[in-house]
Amino acid sequence: MTNLNVFLLILFVLIFGQSGLYAQQQGISINSDGTFSHASSILDVESTEKGFLFPRMTEQQRDDIQGPEQSLWTFNTDCNCLQIFIDGYRQNVNCAP
């Protein structure tokens, strides 16, 4: 490995390694104005023009998820229900008529 390659590798690790550490401490912010995430959140989504879409899937696709984690949110397109996985069961949070 040449000295230039070593230098570029070290530079790459320093730049992207530091940003990775910073992201873990700060949280992720998705917005259009470049503001940082709120200190209490791991994910901070802000918009005045768009909304957030939960993963949309059929009941079969939802049931194919192996070992769903406690509090997993999905939107069931078969029954038009927002659902959350709690204590081994999927609970309807809100259902469209």
Summarize the structure.
The protein contains two helices and six strands. With 97 residues, the chain is an alpha/beta fold.
The backbone outline, from C-alpha atoms, is elongated
Q: Would you report the number of β strands?
A: 6
Helix content: 25-40%
* Helix and strand composition category: alpha/beta
- The total of helices stands at 2
Q: How far is the first residue's CA from the last residue's CA?
A: 65 Å
Beta-strand residue percentage: 25-35%
Q: Quaternary state, please?
A: single chain
Query: How do the strands of the widest beta sheet line up side by side?
Result: 3-4-5-6
Radius of gyration: 20 Å
Let me know the average pLDDT: 83
- Largest sheet, if any? 4 strands, mixed
Topology pattern, helix = H, strand = E: HEEEHEEE
The low-confidence runs, each spanning 5 or more residues with pLDDT under 50, are 19-23
